[in-house]
Amino acid sequence: MMTSFPITKFESIKTPFYYYDTNLLRQTLQAITDETSKRDNYCVHYAIKANANPKVLQIIKEYGLGIDCVSGGEIELSIKMGFDPQKIVFAGVGKSDWEINLGLENKILCFNVESIPELEVINDLAGQKNTIANIALRINPDVGAHTHANITTGLAENKFGIDMDDMDYVIERTRQMKNVKFIGLHFHIGSQILEMDDFIALCNRINELQTKLFAKQIIVDHINVGGGLGIDYKHPNRNCIPDFNSYFSTFHKHLKLQNNQTLHFELGRAVVAQCGTLISRVLYVKQGHQKQFAILDAGMTDLIRPALYQAYHKIKNLSSVEPKEKYDVVGPICESSDVFGKAVDLNKVHRGDLIAIRSTGAYGETMASQYNCRPLPESYTSDELS
Ligand SMILES: *Cc1c(COP(=O)(O)O)cnc(C)c1O
Hints:
With about 375 residues, this protein is α/β, with parallel strands linked by helices. The chain is built from twelve helices and 17 strands. It has helices at about 5-10, 20-35, 55-60, 70-80, 95-105, 115-130, 165-175, 195-215, 245-255, 270, 305-310, 380-385, and strands at about 15-20, 40-45, 65-70, 90, 110-115, 135-140, 160-165, 180-185, 220-225, 260-265, 275-285, 290-295, 315, 325-330, 340-345, 355, 380. It is elongated, with a radius of gyration of 22 Å. Pyridoxal-5'-phosphate binds near residues 68, 188, 228 and 362.
């Protein structure tokens, strides 16, 4: 299933904008549901920070996924969109009091707690409301993921989670607190992970930790392995749906669950990345001495991943079939890092051509900013344009 672009419709729309292929999104969600429905104790919480567009969320909701939030704003949006609070988990190293209160008032499934000071605040705030907060401890498993340094989160040196060696002590502390209930262990090792070995390493680590807990007669209800499954940025057509079968089978095969334990996943990128494309127009073709530039009306304010992580996105000229030439594809923002790709092969570019930047459904629109007083990009779905 390959995204096809309604180019004539695009001609009359103000650029830049995000285009979401809802058929692909539905097929991706179906592929996830096909896998998780094989096992009745698997629950996927969509990591809403990847894409919080209401049109996208509406479709995700149809498939019954829960939500993984990292802020109060995300909790508010999830509830407003009609997601079940009993399927909301809430992570983050710096939860504000109002955000914790919001989670408590909505009786979310679980707070993923990252430190003792946070635990104490949740206990206090839950006490003030005469309620009990379900908490999972986010443990830093010291498992490296083979991905970009800025998006690994599970190493001892990262700011996230509780050190493994402190786990026993923190569990002791939770058990002394009256308004928190310790229900699970949470992990998240990074993002854009394509090596199943990284997830196997995580499973092995969780098995070790569970064995230690078991020896103390502690069995938690809930194991949360986070998200991080990557996508194929190089081949958005050939591999438009991630290999969910190997992903879920890896956990099925390597993670030893105790009876009645539920297994939670927090997939973000893998759900939404391939269904999104940033569409922009060429403003100018500028000839330099060494190279030529295609200057777009989209910039790092619309899609910051290339500037922030040197991320690769496939770029295509939708308006030309003339022989290919090399271009540095850049935006109009006053920053040298406002570059989408260097020496990109594109069919000969002219002013006004439509340019597609692929695989931008995750961490695209949600990371857009108004730097340079630019308007935020609009969005359209394939349903709306068909
Ligand atoms: C960002 C994040 C995710 C989702 O990561 P993806 O790589 O998009 O799957 C899941 N869990 C937590 C705690 C996160 O911070």
